[in-house]
Amino acid sequence: MFCPKCGSLLISKNGKLVCPEHGPVEKEVTFKEKSKTKKDVGVMREKPEVHPKTKAQCPKCGNNEAYYWVVQTRAADEPPTRFYKCTKCGHVWREYS
Ligand SMILES: [Zn+2]
Ligand SMILES: [Zn+2]
Question: Could you tell me the distance, in angstroms and rounded to a whole number, from the CA of residue 9 to the centre of ligand 2?
């Protein structure tokens, strides 16, 4: 990282970047860090391992709680299919809405 004012190499001090000429440099650096964070969120979204829980009865073991997610399987004007996964036995089933 370099100072946006003078181009000096910035020194990391207590988690902040400090220019030897101008002192703490924050504004420009913060913007860059924000765009980096957005990228990280996008990466996390590609791993949908954790689904929200809902009240649904598992047809296999009778458990009353299941993870659910919705998948648009066919044409866009048709209702999406809701999938459930039992939190207890891991059984997956679907429900046509
Ligand atoms: Zn500077
Ligand atoms: Zn179950």
Answer: 59
